[in-house]
Amino acid sequence: QLQLQESGPGLVKPPETLSLTCSVSGGSIINTIYYWGWIRQSPGKGLEWIGNIYYSGSTYYNPSLKSRVTISVDTSKNQFSLKLSSVTAADTAVYYCVRQVGNKEFDYWGRGALVTVSS
Amino acid sequence: EIVLTQSPATLSLSPGERATLSCRASQSVTSYLAWYQQKPGQAPRLLIHDASDRATGIPARFSGSGFGTDFTLTISRLEPEDFAIYFCQHRTTFGPGTKVDIK
Predict the structure, then answer these.
(1) Which CA distances in Å does B95 have to A51, A61, B100?
(2) Taking CB atoms and an 8 Å cutoff, what residues of chain A touch B84?
(3) What pairs with residue A82 in β-bridges?
(4) What are the backbone angles phi and psi of residue A46, rounded to the nearest 5°?
(5) Which of A72, A80, B73, B78 is exposed most, by the fewest CB atoms within 10 A?
């Protein structure tokens, strides 16, 4: 059974960089069908797609966050990572790592990591 | 950019009742629409993909229908564990959600 697990600091000071890693177990990131990505959910709010990466390293970002986002992949560790720079309180959210089937549904989700931005 | 609208925002029903949730797209998404269930403190769970295909392990009381711009998620008989928030999704866009709560 595929499992995704987020890890990283739960508290980030503005305007530093938020960094999270997603470890994938039970299956390989190297797969021609799937994209690997990040989605966030602010307290009491909806779901916001941040970006995706293909195992080859091709990336796709939400235009509203593109200038601050970097997603990378480490196939040797079966992990992918998120960096979000110049954070503000508005970036406080639960961050989920996900697997997307092509450009369709998100079929596997991590449990989520709450990241609070505060000085 | 496609916008997804869900209605109603809140649906108050009793266990055993039928729930009908709507998702409308601002332009055609053909059949590329998915539905998710989210309970407090948990990640969303995929229920339906390609408008009407149940994901692995999802009970038969959940069904999806629609094509183009209008889609429906139906829960035939609500179980206590079904009271949650439901989101629709197309590509990288999510709807705002419908909360199904106990009447």
Answers:
(1) 17, 19, 15
(2) none
(3) A20, A71
(4) -85, -170
(5) A72
Q: How far is C-alpha B62 from the geometric centre of its chain's CA atoms?
A: 9
Long-range contacts formed by A48-57: CB under 8 A, 24+ apart: A48/A93, A48/B94, A49/B92, A49/B93, A49/B94, A50/A82, A50/A84, A50/A95, A51/A82, A52/A100, A52/B92, A53/A80, A55/A29, A55/A30, A55/A31
Is A37 in contact with A47 (CB distance < 8 Å)? no
- Whose tokens are 């925002």? That residue is B9
pLDDT per position as a tens digit, A32-56 = 999 999 999 998 778 999 999 999 9
A101: chain B residues, CB-CB within 8 Å:
49
**CA–CA dist B83, B81 (Å, integer):** 6
Residues 93-112 of A with CB under 8 A from B: 96, 101, 103-107, 109-112
Distance CA A106, CA B38 (A): 13
pLDDT tens readout for residues A43-100? 877 899 999 999 999 999 999 999 999 999 999 999 999 999 999 999 999 999 999 9
Q: Are A87 and A12 in contact, with CB atoms under 8 Å apart?
A: yes
* Beta carbons of B92 and A62 less than 8 Å apart: yes
Q: Do A107 and B55 touch (CB under 8 A)?
A: yes
What residues pair up with B36 in beta bridges, in sequence order?
B46, B87
